[in-house]
């Protein structure tokens, strides 16, 4: 729930990263040669001049019910709809009975509420840290589980309400239906949970934004009470004494942060040979030091949970069978109070009717090109049909979905110069302290430097050298910037420490706009702020002293 991502999970993040790299390669090989000229000529026929956008919209409204129909009202569909309105498009959004989608209802938003409450509990129970600042807490610091849960749920409904209101306020038709494609520009409206269509609407362009659901590996039985996914964990129906968390990606780490703050012991079960496999290695070593070792957390790595059988709270434990991930030899049987399955997410693309349009789903993911156009089985784009967000699997983060939605609307509006740069999209894990990143890990950047024969630069900033972090008595962590030594181009930044999720945008914006690190080094930062940790790293990159 890293950003909704919850962002996201190690597995997903990792997978989508691979997918992105692969599809980039694909696109350079065929978008350039085949689909691009087709698209361009089609657009030229349809819209002779960009300047005549208004008249075009009017002309189109005569033929279609809408300029744009968006299937799905999560953060991706919402972002697409807002931008469509600012581009003057007549727009409808189909909520499928789930306005707000995963992020708002079962992801980033409610998880941030749990993390905020749990973080305060941890802070108030960390007596030494408080004493060092002259504060003592008398009596026990307690929390009311139901009230914490209510905080998360009421936040979700408030954000959901705001989202629907913002759509309506901008003149978007919000339809409480699911959508199925009967043709590329025809969407049948279905009542949530019913199979029969009410009516068919036509649209010049259609965007699929149906998102994803938690993935549960085979052999794991989910009962929603003792064995559950993030969907149920967010309800915080109880706080188990001992919980196994299967998967040490973003979701697993965030829930470990919540549960250990509220008094649980955690056992991670990770299939990769080390914890947090998708993170930059240096950052995951810091994370191990800050988030794992000082807490009641242990871990099995290189093992798979092949069988998980639910128990009965307070009576019968959850039964977990572990095997070696390589050899499949039995390792151990665990009996714990609860198990959280945080092994990634799978696309929610059933029943969209895509097969009829000649689309071959890839493990449920909708294949798309760089403009998010849906590809048919020959790899050619289907005109006027797009897919954004988790459903295409490029990068399973809420804000990535929204950014893809904006890029689709630009494309529809005839702006071919705009291409979303996926490698500049930041991500965060909202543990205490937070972890954030943009661009490549150091390992990936080294491989690229070697392949493309440039020298990789690396520079650090430290929380322990920062006045604000010291004042807060939270002076743990680092910021690491990776760049090309010849051009100063940023290749990535990784931060672990207090408010890392907010600090990453300086680097993300610089990457997005192409500002080299030696220019960033001259940008002035307010003193004293945490942002000076980035300043220290940028200055170090340019060979300047910050202290
Ligand atoms: C196209 O997108 C770019 C962003 O890449 C934007 O700056 C520009 O204003 C857009 N062009 C038009 C004609 O809207």
Automatic annotation (TrEMBL):
- The keyword Disulfide bond appears for this protein: yes
Which residues does the Swiss-Prot or TrEMBL record annotate as the active site?
A: 527 (proton acceptor)
Disulfide bond sites: 103-108
GO terms assigned for molecular function: dihydrolipoyl dehydrogenase (NADH) activity; flavin adenine dinucleotide binding
What residues bind FAD, as annotated?
112, 179, 210-212, 390, 396-399
Domain FAD/NAD(P)-binding as annotated: residue spans: 66-405
Cofactor binding mode and count: Binds 1 FAD per subunit.
Does the keyword section mention NAD? yes
* GO process terms (BP): 2-oxoglutarate metabolic process
Pyridine nucleotide-disulphide oxidoreductase dimerisation domain location = 425-537
Q: Which UniProt keywords apply?
A: Disulfide bond, FAD, Flavoprotein, NAD, Nucleotide-binding, Oxidoreductase, Redox-active center
Query: Which residues does NAD(+) bind?
Result: 247-254, 270, 344
What would be one Pfam family of this protein?
Pyr_redox_2
Q: Which cofactor does it need?
A: FAD
A single GO cellular-component term from the record reads: oxoglutarate dehydrogenase complex
Q: Which family does it belong to?
A: Belongs to the class-I pyridine nucleotide-disulfide oxidoreductase family.
Name of the protein this chain belongs to: Dihydrolipoamide dehydrogenase
